[in-house]
Amino acid sequence: MRTTSPAPSFSFHRTLAGHLRHSVVALGWEPIELPASLAGATAACWRTLPVHHKEILVQRLVHDRSYHEIGRRMGIPIESVKYRINRARETLRFRMNETCPAFAAIAA
Predict the structure, then answer these.
(1) What percent of the chain has pLDDT over 70?
(2) Residue 59 · residue 70 · CB < 8 Å
(3) Domain extents for the chain?
(4) Which of 96, 84, 78, 75 is nearest to 16 (CA)?
């Protein structure tokens, strides 16, 4: 049975934003400084994500777990881990683009 976790705090969203920035650098993209106004938009978009997207992003970005470790903990194959992380990132990116035109301009 899945239990609901409490809503993440604002500091969690700041940590998530920091991890997302780290992921951008890890992908070889040019790092950017996001305006403070995007922190609220990020938090709002995060709250709209389905729980399964949040869970896998937290495993990867916050806890810095490998695909193998995530798969082992969740009981799913590595390919499923990769797919779910990609879908979660796409969903978050889509919602950020919808919610905050400034993010779309920065991400382009």
Answers:
(1) 58
(2) yes
(3) 10-26+35-107
(4) 96
| Residue 57 to residue 85: CA distance in whole angstroms | 6
Stated length of the chain: 108
Which residues have CB under 8 Å from 52's CB, separation 6+? 84, 88
Fold of 10-26+35-107: Arc Repressor Mutant, subunit A (1.10.10)
pLDDT of residue 55: 92
pLDDT at 77: 97
Is there a contact between 4 and 34 (Cβ–Cβ < 8 Å)? no
Q: With 0-12 CB in 10 A as exposed, 13-18 as middle and 19+ as buried, what is 93?
A: middle
